[in-house]
Every structure is written in C-alpha cells, then in structure tokens.
Amino acid sequence: MQQRLPLVVFALVMAAIPFIPGVPPFWIVLLDNIGLAALVAMGLVLLTGVGGLTSFGQAAFCGFGAYTTAVLTTAYGVSPWLTLPLSLLVSGLAAVVLGIVTVRLSGHYLPLGTIAWGIGLFYLFSKLEFLGRNDGISGIPPLSIGSLKMLDPGTIYFVIWIAVLVSALLTMNLLDSRTGRAIRALRRGHIAGEAFGVQTPRAKLLVFIYAAVLAGLSGWLYAHFQRAANPTPFGAHAGIEYLFIAVVGGAGHVWGAVLGAGIVVILKEILQSYLPLVFGGQSQLETIVFGILLVVLLQLAPTGVWPWLMARLPIRPARKIPDTSLALARRARAAESPAPLLRVEKARKQFGGVIAVNDVSFEVRAREIVALIGPNGAGKSTTFNLITGVLTTTGGSISVLGTKVDNAPPQEVVRLGVSRTFQHVKLVPDMTVLENVAIGAHLRGSAGALASMLRLDRADEAKLLAEAARQIERVGLGDQIDQPAGSLSLGQQRIVEIARALCADPLLLLLDEPAAGLRHLEKQRLAALLRQLRDGGMSVLLVEHDMGFVMNLADRVVVLDFGTGIAEGTPEAIKSNPEVIKAYLGAST
Amino acid sequence: MNTTIMLFLLQDGITNGAIYALLGLALVLVFAVTRVILIPQGEFVTYGALSYAMLATGQVPGTAKLALAMGAVSFALDLFDNRRSLRLKLLARSLALNLVLPAVILALTYGLAGPKTPIAVNIALSLLIVAAIGLFLYRIAFQPLAHTSVLVLLIASVGCHLALQGLGLVFFGAEGLRGPALSNAALTIGPLRFTGQSLAVYGLTIAFIVALWLFFGFTLMGKALRATAVNRLGARLVGIRTTLSGQIAFLLASLIGAISGILIVPITTLYYDTGFLIGLKGFIAAIIGGLVSYPLTAVAALVVGGVEAFSSFYASNFKEVIVFTLIIPVLVLRSLAAPAVEEEKD
User: Fold this and answer.
1) Do A298 and B152 touch (CB under 8 A)?
2) Which of A82, A162, A443, B69 is 20 to 30 Å from the Cα of B146, by its Cα?
3) How many CA atoms lie within 13 A of B286 on its CB side?
4) Which 3 state secondary structure label does DSSP give A73?
C-alpha cells in the first residue's frame, strides 16, 4: 500500500482543487485541458518511451473517439455514456487496421508512416460530408448523471481526472507485469524477447492499440467538454504536440505524461497571452517559441523533466523481495531417453555467395556438455542462430527431441526446451536484474494484458518472480537483484543472461561465449555451475574461446573451421588432432 | 476522359512530380549524410519562394535578417564550444562564416532591392539568404545532437519546422504571394503547351539528379559524406571532418529547397505554410526510394505527382488523403522486402 500513497495524495489534491474558494474558473479549464492531453501522452509514453515505437499520429485517434460520439449523439440521439465503449472500440479498431500495416515497419519508417496517415486522416475528417467537413459537428449533448448535466468545466473536471487517474493506475499495473516486461523489452530489439517466447509483433500491436484507446478516450471526453468536434485539434500539428508533451515530461514515465501535459498546456497559455503583449499583435509567435524550446530541451535534457525531478526527490521505490517459496510447474522430462536431445544434420546457411555454415552435423545427448569451438568466423554463432530459429537454414535439418525445428520461429524452439544466451549481451539496461531474468520465464506464465491491468495476475506474477529470484541466487548474483542490469559489469551481465535462460526451465542450454569477460575465479564458479546443471539432468552446448575452460568442462568438443565441421571427439582427442592444430595455429606445408 | 485531358493531367503531374523529386533528393541527401529527416525542407521552399516574390516587389524580406540573427547564434555557440581553446584562426573563421557572411548578404539585399532589380539578381539573393539559413540551422539545432538517435533528430527536426513556419508567418504574412516567371517563352507540341517555366523545372531536376549521382558515386568528397552517415566515429578516424559533411548537406538541401520554391512560385500562389505539404510529398517520394536511392526517388516523385494530378481531377476533395495514404502500402512492401535487422538502440 505504501507505493500507492503518492497516488492517493495526488488524487485527493486534484479532488480538492475545485472546492478551494477563489480558484479562478479559468484554471479549471486549463486543468481540464491538461487532463485531456495527459491521457493521449500516457499512451505515447507506453508506445514511444517504453515500447520504442514513435507515433506522430495519435491526434487522429482522438479524432476517431470524438467523431464517433459526435455522430452518434447528434444524428442518432444515442446517450453519451453508451457511446463511450463505441468510441473506444472505433479508435481501437482503427489502431488494429493501421497497426497491422505500420507496426511491422522498422526504425524510422514507423514515425514517417504515422506522419503520413496522421495527415491523411486529418484531410479525411475535413472532407467527409457526414462529419460536417471543415465545420465539424456542433451541438453535442453534455455528459449527464441523473439530472446533473455536466455543462461547465468544473463538473466535467471530475470525469476527466478520474479517467486520468484510472488510466495511470492501469498503465502502471500493465508495465509491472509479465506482459509489461515484454513491452519494455521491445525497445532493445526483438531477438532477445523472441528467444524466450515473446510474440513481438503481438506485443507491439497491443501497445499501439492501448495508446489509441487512451487517445480515443481523450477524444470522447473532448467532444463532450467542447460539445463540438472539428478537424483542427486532430491534425498533424496536434500529433506533434502530444509527442512533445511526452518528451518534455519524460517519455519513459507514466507520470511524466501528466507532468509534461501540465508544463506544455500552461506554457502555451502563458505564451499565447503574453507574447503578443511583448511583441505586438503577431499571431503564431507561440509556435516559434515552442519549436525553439523543443530543440533546446532535446539538447539539454533529452530524458525529460520527470526523471530529473525524481532524481532530486528523496523518495526511493520500495524493494520488492519475491517470496521464493512459490514454485512454477516444471517441464516434463522423459526418463533417460536414448534419442539425442538435439540433432543437427547437414545444416547449411548461405548469405549470398558466402557459406557461413557448410553441412555441419553433430548431436547433443541428454546430460552432456558439448563445446563448439573454432577460430573467429568459423560459423559458431550462426549455428546457434540456426538452432534457435533466429536464422532460417538454407539446407539440412535440425531437430529437438525428434521435432524438426529448422525454420521454426524462435518462440517454438524455446517452447521445446532450448534456451540461450547471446554473444553480444541483450539485456534491457534500465530494467532490474530481477525483471530481466523474469523475461526468461515468459512462457511459464499465462496472465494477459487485461488481467495485468486489473491486478488479477498477482498469483501468476509472484511465481514468475520467485523463479527468477531463485535462478539469480543460483548463479550467485543475489546481491545485485535490484540493480539496473546496465550497471553490472559485462561479465556479470553474461551471468544474468544465463539466469534468464535457466528461467525458461530448459532441457538444453545454449551459451554463446559465457566466460568472456569473467575473471579466473568467476570462470571456475561458472564451470562448477554448469557441471551441477548437467548432473541435474540438463544438457549444455557452448561456444567458447577459452580453451582451458572448454577442455576442463566439456564431455565432447565439436570443431568448426570456415563453416565446416573438421573434428569431433573428447577433449583429449581434439587436443592432439592434427586438423584442429592446423586450423588454430596454421601448419607449415 | 479524352486524351487531351489525360495529357494535361500527365503534364501537370510531371511538373509537380519534378519539384517533389528535387525535394526528395534533398531529403535523401540530408538523411544519408546526417541521419536527420529534414521536416523543415518545406520551409526552405517557402523561404526561397517568398523571399524571391518579396524581392520582386522591391521589399527586403525578413529572412535576410533571420540569417544574420542565426549567424550570431552560431557564432556564440562556436565561442562557447571552443571556450577552452580559443585560437585566432578559429575565431576569424567563425567570425567570417557566421557574422560577416550574413551581414554582407543583408547589406547586399538592402543595397540591391528595388522594384527594378533584374530577376537574376533577385534569384541570387534569395538563394544566398536561404543557403545561409540552412547552414546555420545545422550548426544551431543539429550539430550538438549529431551523436543521438534518428528519433531524437526527427523530433528536433519537427521543432525546427514549427519555429521556422511561425517565423514565415511573421516575415511574409498570412497572404499568399506569387513571383514573376523566369521566362515567358513557350513551346507548343500538339495539344500541349510547355512554358519556359516548366521546361526549367524539368531541366533543373534532371541536372540535379545527375549531379548528385555523380557527386556521391564518383568523388572523394561525396564518398566522405556517405561514410559520415554510416559511422561518424569511423569517418572521423580516417580523417573526415564530420561537421563539415553535415554543413555541406544542409547547404545543398537548403539550396535545392530554395530553387524548387523559386521554380514553383510563378506557377502557383504560395503561403507561409504551403512548404510543409510540398515537402511532405517530397518525403513520400524519398521514403519510396528508401531514403537511399536518388534515381528511385525521382521516379517515385513522378508517380506521386501523377497520382496527385489524377486524383485532383477525379476526387479533388480527397486529393491529399489519396496522396498521403499512398505511402502506407509502399512502406509495408518495403518492410516486407527488407526483413527487420536487429537494431542496437540507445
């Protein structure tokens, strides 16, 4: 309950403001506008700040919300409360359609695409006959409860701010959950998430729809607040302004949206009322100042005001200590099956004319540690990517426990019990070690976005976090559990990746250079851990350059050179194999 | 529809498309070198066009003063950045580029502006003014952000667009302006009449495409500019001055923008905010070209111009809707064709 205290205080303050005698009615109007903008910006926080998907077109979704209720209430006499779900539905459906085509876009194509449809929809609103063209629709009925008609800004104020507070609460709940972790991992690229079963496109579409629904809610409120809807507030410039609000407030923080909305709306008001006094009656001066401020802000404080403010306040979030007594169901394990766990047969990968992996074959059986070694560029990491579905094979076949997985998506491979670490660490640096590791258990939880928002996921969530905490303890990073993953040394980050992989309850663990960046003692500890895992029934396939580490640990060694398997055998046999010595040291011919 | 109308629409589309192609080229150029998606490109168009139109009526446009003011800010920033190692040579160069140059342009504008000034002089003055603004814009807004992500640069770019468009209203007013044509010659082939103006549009567009292609493909400077875009640090390590590359890109982009503006202002009335839409259509072409290919961008621009011309005939109300939604299928095809590469951000 301690964490909710600031929220309760904020809610009480907001509820008290209209009752303070002497508050000018104009302030209430400003606060209404701040609330409306904060709703849209909150969606952008999730979409852009957290998910890394930039949209310049959120204003168009407000338009969908506003026009839906405007048409239904004026032309068909539907009650405003009944149009609320419809407004949200229409904005959500618009997001599904636009999302399916645009969310797939990579990098800077997405923001450009959103600018394009933002402008396109603005023109559509201003040209369609039944939306009243440029004049829009007026005479929208006010919201009412019983005989209370919310005609003045002071009464709709409560509806707007209840909407803001509830949305903030739901958004924070969502971010602090299994789905939330998947969303927060989006910004760092899709490979790591997908390796643990996250359906990246679905997660992207989810935040896109969520942001659109929040914008639609803001549009619905706007329509009943202004009691009119016209195209101007839903155009490209409004879309840009919402993004501005999110950036000013701090694009990664839910409360940054509210703070940013406050700063921008008030600043705009001040600029609009005072600039003409200073510079004469020129209009549009505020856009000039606005634009300049935006550039200056990006240069001076690119992370926004909220993080800056939080760093200066003495409030620290309370430590969450997961109850490690809770246990997740483990994967069913076949008792001593003779069939190999992983069978790679003549696997082949060509990049244009380059053959990175050339008909490589090997097996990993239950309870064994196999090392894949070879000089740089031998195709070791590519082989890993073929096994885990990050790359598709050009030929050959790969199967896990008899199930063919070549060309299966990464999510399928991890489901079968193969989890991995990466040569270049792929953690989310601003998430804690615990949260990063919990992503590994993604497939072992089941709570969806809606359950998370309503906090119906707590039992499921506690088990996931307990499992993550247990694995962190197991790899010996218990003291760092609450630290941001980015603050750890590179060697420790590799160990965090191992804990994350263990969270998937794997049958086969794929480790890509796990010992790189570790000190001698840490390497010994890692070797001991891997042996312990093998004795517990797990198999390990690892790529490693530290020969001392490999030769002491592995049961069998597979050697690749220029994409081709040149030797396979026990460490002793490999050490004296002339082909291997030639590949590593060269030979006088 | 008869053939004549179709030919007219096609001609109209090609003329507009050629302008979009010029702008698309400039956008590709700036993006390829600095990773900035240059939303204020449209403002270069309006500044060029409306400065030229005002000069034609004998007035001094406010843009000349803006260039001087931006130069002063650039100078101050240069001083601040080099405060620990102020050398006379550096100081003199910054002074000459940031203060003397725009001051001379302003003085020239005041000296030469008048109702009887020849068209060529007006064009030269407008180009000088806008080129200076482009150069200083890079120094002030983008050079300090050069190391950041495409997204941060994009948002800054939007900020610049807002500021410059607002200033455009201050300088040129809300009324639209038209400028005098470059030449009154005309050529008639069959039912079509080609004005000297539209021929100039075609000629300049083709010349720029060829020139940029040659520059980037075959000169050391061009290759250095491309190297800067791919990896700033790497480019610096091999001795390329990355700041200079950015300045050149912005200089070229603002020049191209201003030229496009001067080419169209005799054909259509331009308002202070028209540039944004024109620029965005150039964008669509640039995006279709994947922000890398000059010839593809030019072809795409012609398609955009054509679609615009035909949709303004058949569904004039929905002209903009059609043009702007054209981009979405293209983007989808692009991202399907080029599978998403894992990006390491932040």
Assistant:
1) yes
2) B69
3) 30
4) helix
Closest residue of chain A to B170, computed from CA coordinates: A282
Q: Do A295 and B160 touch (CB under 8 A)?
A: yes
Write out the two tokens for A376. Answer: 């740089």
Tokens of A163: 């909407």
Q: How far apart are CA A438 and CA A499, in angstroms?
A: 9
Write out the H or E segment, with its range, that includes residue A349. strand A342-351
What six digits make up the tokens of A198? 């996250």
Tokens encoding B80: 């601040």
Q: By the CB < 8 Å criterion, does A107 face chain B?
A: yes
Place of tokens 């839910």: A254
Residue of B34, B138, B140, B151 to mutate for A, most A C-beta atoms under 10 A: B151
pLDDT at A130 over 50: yes
A129 burial class (0-12, 13-18, 19+ CB within 10 angstroms)?
A: exposed
Q: What is the pLDDT of residues A337-382, one digit of tens each?
A: 667 889 999 988 888 788 888 889 999 998 899 999 988 888 888 9
Any bridge partners for residue A349, and if so which?
A: A357
Contact criterion met (CB below 8 Å) for B71 and B136: yes
* Ramachandran assignment for A484, one of left (phi > 0), alpha (psi -120 to 50 degrees), beta (any other): beta
Phi, psi dihedrals of residue A432, rounded to the nearest 5°:
-70, 165
A119: nearest CA partner in chain B = B324
Nearest CB partner across the interface for A107, out of B150, B167, B283: B150
Q: Report the first-to-last Cα separation within chain A, whole angstroms.
A: 75
- Phi and psi (nearest 5°) for A449? -65, -45
Q: What is the pLDDT of residues A576-585, one digit of tens each?
A: 888 888 887 7
Instruction: Give the predicted TM-score (pTM) of the model.
Output: 0.84
User: Distance, in angstroms, between A102 CA and closest chain B CA?
Assistant: 7
Residue A191 has pLDDT above 70, yes or no: yes
Q: Do B154 and A119 touch (CB under 8 A)?
A: no
pLDDT per residue of chain B (346 residues) written in tens, 0 to 9: 678 888 888 888 888 888 888 888 888 788 878 888 888 999 999 999 999 999 988 888 889 999 999 999 999 998 888 888 778 888 888 888 889 999 999 999 898 888 888 888 899 999 999 999 999 999 999 998 888 877 778 888 888 998 898 899 888 888 888 888 777 777 777 777 777 788 888 888 888 888 888 887 888 888 887 777 677 778 888 877 778 888 888 999 999 999 999 988 888 888 888 888 888 888 888 877 766 677 788 888 888 888 888 888 887 778 878 887 777 777 777 766 655 444 433 3
Chain B positions in Cβ-Cβ contact with residue A124 (cut-off 8 Å): 318, 321
Longest dimension (CA), chain A: 99
**Which chain A residues are closer than 8 Å to B335 by Cβ?**
104-106, 109
pLDDT, one tens digit per residue, over A247-268 is: 888 878 899 999 999 988 998 8
Which segments of B168-305 are extended strands (E)?
A: 186-189, 192-195
Residues B63, B261: contact at Cβ < 8 Å?
A: no
